[in-house]
């Protein structure tokens, strides 16, 4: 008895999704430079406001990723697009950006608590 879905058909769909993901990754890589949050690891003379500016920029970028993911999901729900791979990729990028931001916040809070508990 045949279920109507062949292994070859599933593999063809899988390959098509992987190709679209690779194409989307190639398109978005030059835009964000491949770094979550847009904060580089460069060293050198830093101005006092650089950390604040970098953190604000990272938060704005995460907000933009979340807005983009929300717009893509809404367009898919309205039927304006049928590319579920692009929608899922946008949602995953937003999720990873948010998780990275959350981890930075946790590390900052931990460092603050360590500094505040130091004897003077």
UniProtKB/TrEMBL annotation:
GO terms for cellular component: bacterial-type flagellum basal body. Its main location: other. One of its GO terms (biological process) is bacterial-type flagellum-dependent cell motility. It is found in: Bacterial flagellum basal body. Keywords: Bacterial flagellum, Cell projection, Cilium, Flagellum. GO terms for molecular function: cytoskeletal motor activity; structural molecule activity. The keyword DNA repair does not apply. It comes from the Bacteria. Belongs to the FliE family. NCBIfam families: fliE (TIGR00205). This is Flagellar hook-basal body complex protein FliE. It comes from Sphingobium algorifonticola.
């Amino acid at each position: 008895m045949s279920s109507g879905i062949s292994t070859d058909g599933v593999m063809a769909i899988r390959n098509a999704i992987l190709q679209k993901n690779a194409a989307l990754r190639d398109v978005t890589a030059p835009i964000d430079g491949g770094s979550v949050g847009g904060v580089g690891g460069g060293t050198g003379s830093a101005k006092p406001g650089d950390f604040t500016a970098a953190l604000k920029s990272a938060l704005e970028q995460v907000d933009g990723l979340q807005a983009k993911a929300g717009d893509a999901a809404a367009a898919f729900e309205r039927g304006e697009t049928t590319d579920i791979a692009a929608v899922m990729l946008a949602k995953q990028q937003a999720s990873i950006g948010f998780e990275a931001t959350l981890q930075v916040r946790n590390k900052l809070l931990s460092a603050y608590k360590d500094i505040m508990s130091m004897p003077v």
